[in-house]
Amino acid sequence: MKRRLFVSSSLSAIALTGCGVGNALTQNQTVRTILNSAETIDYHLIGTRGMAKEYTEADISPTFRTNGFATPSSSLYIGYVEDGFASYRLVVDGLVEHKRAFSIAQLRAMPLVTQITRHDCVEGWSVIGKFRGVRLGHVLSIVKPRPEARYVIFHCMDVDDTGTPYYESLDLTQAAHPQTILALDLNDKPIDPDHGAPVRLKIPTQLGYKSAKWVNRIEVASTFSHLYSGKGGYWEDNGYNWYAGI
Question: Which of 127, 144, 174, 206 has the fewest C-beta atoms under 10 angstroms from its C-beta?
Fold first, then answer.
């Protein structure tokens, strides 16, 4: 297990050095080829079979650091904040039998789980937080993915400096992991705007950029090749590792 974790962490560290777009390593074709082949090994060696360590209340970090894009400033998001997210709906559509649009009240009425887990950023820092929310697998069981579905794509409300929105993706196995949740609370309070309100993804078995914030649509699909640069996520489109397992 130590060897597997070392391999995974080493590959991720090489693949994901820094958060800037276009660093020298990610633009090197030889490095890209090695990392793309190693990602498959990483996924199948570690996959989603393991569970991330869970901590105690005493381990919670005093401050849960923010990172990534700025808090959304669109009129849509500002409207959500002003009405306390009463008008917000989490749309779940695509290759599903039952398309749905869930209110926060409906999500909170589902079976909720709590985890105290570590958030590991690709930049090298970590924080421990207490997250409460609904398992993504439970939500998917309600909408019922079709047989041809393979991926779950998260469309978010934050954008980069050019207006390109943030997005991420998981395969259905990752989505069904018991620690993959749609988080509604952080440290016993509703998640605030700067940390991804009202709904953020939390996946403690993978690097932090997989835990997309400000999610407003979940698309179930057979592929993600049609989105943006076709690599399955904003940072993946810029040369980062798709699996990003810890």
Answer: 144
